Amino acid sequence: MSATILIIDDEPKMAGILKRVLTKQGYEVVTTSKPEQGLTILQSQPVQIILCDLKMPGMDGIEVLERAKQIQPQAEFIMMTAYATAQTAVESMKKGAYDYLIKPFPLDELKILLARVLKTKTLQEENVRLREALVDKFHFDNIIAESKLMQAVLARVAKVAPSDASVLLRGESGTGKEILAKAIHQASPRKDKPLVTVNCSAIPTTLLESEMFGHVKGAFTGAVETRKGLFQSADGGTIFLDEIGEVSPAVQVKLLRVLQDGKFQRVGDTVPITVDVRLITATNKNLEEAIQQGAFRQDLYYRLNVVPIYIPPLRERKEDILPLIEHFAKKFHRPGKTVTYAPETIDLFLAYDWPGNIRELENAVEHAVVMGESQQILPCDLPLALHTFYSKQELALSTPIHEQMTLADIEKRWIINALRKTNKNHTRAAKLLGITRRTLGYRLQKYVIDLDKI
Asked: pTM for the complete prediction?
């Protein structure tokens, strides 16, 4: 990795020696004897490493360090001083210095230190590149990472993906655990080998062991031929076991053996089969409670939970809702129909808690695109659960609903009732209704609600 080094030292002779030596090492070197000029250089060109003297007239190295970090926070800072004390060393490190050198120092020591700095920076940049590549690669597979919570999840995925460590994905139903499992596999060295997905809750308990590990002919009624299981099919690749909390004690024992020594036996067989499989599991259950109840093996739990990744529900990362809507709208696009969303529809999307998470949001967008009669999606174009959302705010209607009432009539009465409950406080009424204050104002005008008559 080539690098530009800025040397700030009020001793021109020292700066000149360092420049000659480091230029021969292949570095691009810029020198100055004035701290102010050094900061000006940082504002005009990128620098990877700063070598700065501690004691200089006008501005000391600590102040240069603080200001340099504001200009180029990614640049590594090495302090040089002939007056090193424990206090100055600690202070410079606290301010963000990578290391310090005590003058006079051997040039070989400097060369080794610079090599270490560049190695660290290369690893950091590779991690950033991997994270960015992962986000780009899976953005259109519903991994929307606008929120800080999901960015943190993807950063964790980027770290664990290249390894063979077992991963336990935790989170509510519909948060995208299977999508994330695919992302881990695709970013791993096993990406060219199979990814086998098993929904443990969808296979009857009596058949799950046979599905996973296979069986020999005659092992049980209906076993008319020898059959290999999903673990064998996944050899060299990854197996994703969704709803791992549903597996029986017998299957748990076999899973533990596979994780321990990579071996298992088909149902009805005594010959061990060896496989090389990376295991990713997922659950929305509390496995710790299951262990306390004796329903899940503690030793298996520790094998599965090497790297836990928690996927937050959609209600905790609402910054992702609008990008997800845009993505799903493209997915369900109908030729000749350009879909837009009314402001009140957007407000409803953002206010709703989405108990079904991304899966429910995807369903809502598809429903709206298919059922919407105009180009603009209105709340009435959304599924029933969103229609009844306002009633979940416990707004008691002042008069009973009858068959002749339209949705607009009912909505108007909800608004009036909310204003009565909050003594006409618009902010509190909007919060009670689950909409914004702007949307409430729009509704007051739309329905010509006279506040003096409430």
From this structure: 0.57
